[in-house]
Amino acid sequence: MANRLLEWCDEHAATVTDLADLTGYSVSYLSLIARGKREPTPLTKLAIARALGERVRELFPADRVAS
Question: Model-level pTM greater than 0.85?
Answer without folding.
Answer: no
